């Protein structure tokens, strides 16, 4: 039984992620600017070199210390 990420690699599906900032009075300007931005899955590691993958649906961006922003899977395309 293949896992979803293996299917994606096999058929070269593309992941689309949305940048989700936790917006409150502690959110920095940079993260505020990125909020709701759509990112291609292949671009994540290039754009956010400190991002860590939680699972195939979720990355923690780690843009700065104590960053709470996430990249959430929006769509799997063909
Ligand atoms: Zn942040």
3D structure, described in words:
The chain is of the alpha+beta class. The chain has one domain (4-77). Helices cover 23% and strands 32% of the residues. The mean pLDDT is 88. Residues 21, 31, 61, 63, 67-69 line the site of zinc ion.
Task: Outline the secondary-structure elements.
Blueprint: H1 4-11, E1 14-20, H2 29-34, E2 38-40, H3 44-47, E3 52-55, E4 58-60, E5 70-77
Antiparallel strand pairs: 1-2, 1-5, 3-4, 4-5
Zinc ion binds near residues 21 and 67.
Radius of gyration: 13 Å
Number of domains: 1
As a percent range, the share of strand residues is 25-35%
- Distinct small-molecule ligands in the complex: zinc ion
Q: How far do the termini sit from each other?
A: 21 Å
Number of strands: 5
Helix content: 10-25%
Content-based structural category:
alpha+beta
Number of helices: 3
| Major pleated sheet | 5 strands, antiparallel
Question: Taking strands numbered 1, 2, ... along the chain, how are they ordered across the largest sheet?
Answer: 2-1-5-4-3
Mean pLDDT metric:
88
Order of helices and strands: HEHEHEEE
